[in-house]
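Forwarding the complex inputs:
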Amino acid sequence: MDEKDMVRRSKEGDEEAFGFLVKKYKTKVYHLAYSLSHDAQAADDLAQEVFIKAYYALDKFREQSEFGTWIYRIAVNHCRDFLRKKNRMIQIPFENIAGKISAEEDETLPEEKEQEEAKRREIIHTAIQAMPDKYRVILSLRDIQDFPYSEISKILDISPGTVDSRLHRARKMLRKKLEPFFSKKGEGHEM
Amino acid sequence: MKCKQTEKYLLKSLDERLNPSEAIRLEEHLDDCPLCQKRQSEYRIVRETLKEESFPETKPYFWERLQPKLKGKRTIEPWTIGKQFGLRAIPLSILVVVLFTAAVFLFVPSPVEELDLSQTGVFLLENLNPLEETQSFLSEEGDVNKHLMLIFSSLDETDTIRRYFP
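Prediction (whole assembly, two chains):
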């Protein structure tokens, strides 16, 4: 089925056609929301809200971009609003968490690789959550979701050069945040 | 190459965006710099960890749960249809106006100007002899009659010079 036709039919009020679009994009939108919120329930709520927003804004979609790009843009903006509100309520003290994990590792080194990776993942995610929203979003789109530069540029409505520089700063900032962890690990492991 | 520039190259290399000469320069620097080797390793670990991110499955009945939230709320406003097509209609409207104006100039004949004709002109246009009346005056027998008829007939004349004075 042709996506453009489905969009046109959705605009005319055909719910079945909109259902087709939802089924096509729900996983990606959910993953995007999850990578930013790191909370399955919140991600599900966010994904539902994104599609509700899109449904009521269909008349404003002028089809100058792909429907996918448009829905991701709504998702990014909606998740940003969510993060802004959440950040006002909870400030994640990354330094404390990282320090605690590193201290635990000194006492009991994880035997299994899987456990080690899970811990590493947790640390990295906590570090990402302590970063400014714009860096979290770009890391999520590029390094987690694996979107190409051109698509990120369209979703965020910024130039490819800005994508490049913002991603550069985000990765650099993340590495700096993780530096204490890496230095400790480096003594005994792959570093 | 300095370590600062190497970091830039390291980040570009994560997305395989280095050209061959940059890749060689990076390799050369990495061979001699343990600090940048460490950074490279750190960037790779972070990138791979993020790439291997496992996502939970979307909750079941996503569409079924969403559908009731959409029902009956969206109404298509007539003005939004106009708005949707409004921008596309602008060039078309301009074209229509231009074509109509051109058609008016090309095909509609210009109105005939009303001619400001003298009485003689009116007679000639109607294929009548303008001197017929004057001749009838001149053919009158008496001088008084002749003069009076000429005086009365010239009273309509607005230009006083053209009035008859015996």
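The radius of gyration of chain A is 19 Å.
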